């Protein structure tokens, strides 16, 4: 007989090893951050509905307004590889005793792909809280609003 494939992960939040992998990938991405101006490295890791993880870091530019956040880098990488359905994102920084949160622009870009997914906000020591995207951007505007 052939080798049996493990069943697909149930819908909902990543658990156990999968969650630890998502958190680790966000920390690894943070180490790649290009932030010579702010010296504020951020990493993000995005879990697709299909179980793949895309990571991203912030990339600054001497023309400050051209910089891009870690969350948007991860989303753009996933989109460019054909993924548009997401389950969770982990975000990491060196912010000490505070949870890192996505900026307003990132929240809106995340919102483009639904409100029903999880965002893991971490502290530098690895502890985290989980928020639904709809909690981070209430009363939001999205693609369906253009059809009204």
Q: What can you tell me about this protein's structure?
A:
Belongs to the cytidine and deoxycytidylate deaminase family. This enzyme scavenges exogenous and endogenous cytidine and 2'-deoxycytidine for UMP synthesis. Keywords: Hydrolase, Metal-binding, Zinc. Residues 17-144 form the CMP/dCMP-type deaminase domain. With 148 residues, the chain is α+β, with helices and mostly antiparallel strands. The chain has one domain (16-135): Cytidine Deaminase, domain 2 (3-Layer(aba) Sandwich), CATH 3.40.140.10. It is 26% helix and 20% strand. The protein has helices spanning 16-30, 70-80, 104-111, 133-136; strands spanning 42-48, 53-57, 86-93, 118-122, 128-132. The protein has a five-stranded mixed sheet. Strand 4 and strand 5 form a beta hairpin. The protein starts with 15 loop residues before the first helix and ends in a 12-residue tail after the last helix. Mean pLDDT is 93; it is low at 4-10.
